[in-house]
Amino acid sequence: MRTPMAYLRGARHPEAFHGRGAGRPFFEGWYVKLVSADRAHRWAVIPGVFRGDGRGDMPADEAFVQVLDGVAGRSWYHRFDPEEFAASDRRFEVRVGGNIFDSDGATLDLPQLRGRISYATALQPWPVTLREPGIMGWYGLVPFMECFHGVVSFGHDLGGTLQVEGREVDFGGGRGYIEKDWGQAFPAGYVWLASNHIDAVGVGIVGGVTDASLVASVAIIPWLRGSFRGSIVGLRHGGRLYRWTTYNRSRERRLTIDDDRVRWSMAGPDGRLDLEAERVRGGLLHAPLRTAMHQRVEETLDARVMIRHTDAAGRVLLEGVGACAGLEVFGDTTRLLALR
Predict the structure, then answer these.
(1) CA 332 to mean position of chain CA atoms
(2) Which of 37, 191, 297, 311 is the most buried (most CB within 10 A)?
(3) Domain definitions of the chain by residue range
(4) pTM exceeds 0.85
(5) Per-residue pLDDT reduced to its tens digit, 294-321
């Protein structure tokens, strides 16, 4: 069992490991996105660990590194003995076999990717304060939450080269992004999208590349004997983080999901945000159920998200297209849409 001190330390450091002393089932994974300067190479590398509840015919415990080729839509799941996993509960520092991830970069020793990527600029995490301990707000302090989420870096510049399936690829001048999840299992239904390649239009910038980053998710959240639809959205641009979340009393004006698009509009203290994401085919990733890691989530790094942010007076603060976007639409979306 985790001690109260360890739990509070974990709340202050969402980027660190939360599994020491945690019960079963438990999973934790870090999503490390690497995109070359010309955007021709887009990879997601996901190290993590899973501890099952002892049911089913799958291994009870395992470490892993997942790999997603965001251009071709291919994916791989590399399973490791749990003894090959190590992570710090005080900082972002993870090792799975010969693969090492920390705040300085990533060393990869995988059949698809080998080499060292460094982070040329500092990581930009979602701020952690006493009032708002990370992206989940006060929900991040609730011990019985099914799944916790953290943003380790909205964006940072890359340096170094990788052997991509035997061919050397320069990632210098590229862009990275890191987030993570931990808890008992993924939600029964959710939408997740993220992009830090936002090309602005209008607002005096035609076709300009901004420093903007977007992460947005809406999910079925089990709560006591029921459930609700919870949203966490962060849009960072112009040196400021704008938020639309369940805990800051933002409200959804529209959420629709069909075979081609996700349309989502919300309003709150930081104005109005309109998103329209194009759904495209992707690769299958493994996701944690309570019994095992199952290959069931289709994810792409080739989605496009139309973004429009306006203030309370209707003035456009940012309008653009999020490219190289990660997008997942999973599970019981009919139930998700029916919840309030």
Answers:
(1) 20
(2) 191
(3) 4-338
(4) yes
(5) 656 778 899 999 999 999 999 999 999 9
